[in-house]
Here is the input.
Amino acid sequence: MPTPTTSLLPVPLVPEISLHLVEGPVGLFDLTGGEFHSDEPPPFWAFVWAGGQALARYLLDNPGVVAGRAVLDVATGSGIAAIAAARAGARQVRALDLDPAAARAAERNATANGVTISAAQADVGAAGRAEVILAGDVFYSRGVADRMTTYLRAAARTGARILVGDPGRGYFPDKLFVRVAEYVVPVPAALEETETLLTGVWEMRTTPGRE
Here is the structure.
């Protein structure tokens, strides 16, 4: 799959941050020839998704959530949430994604915004511990949602604070979370078939209940 052409653009909900993003009316699978190949992830990192935007806005408006803490952003994509955490004063920021291209994009975007993060290709099973764990738009399929939920619940039991950005994806386990903020997030119509998504920032309950 060829690398998408991107430009450094301000994030609609978080204009303090700019990312290397695809321009124009382009959808995710327009970049893959309309096909999905399980051995080659589509370039999620070339777009800024609603959940990540909401998380970033929340962290910049509430820097005390991450200031001085070790932060982990799972399924980082473009790195938007990780970058916001670094700008908000996190002591350390790690970012993980299954796609090596996403890890590279996250570090490139961090550099463009004058912050340092450590990004790597890894599954959540190898994520390790952090004081604050961020996850944006990770509940888009049953398989991914189940794996993420298992990981996040285990992390919460170790004392980690879990924050998720989600615009109502179909597999979001809302009973495990409390909404702490909500934003109307501008999104590309070619990506989401709408121009805005009402998106929540959710914190996992201290003692997660059953789904």
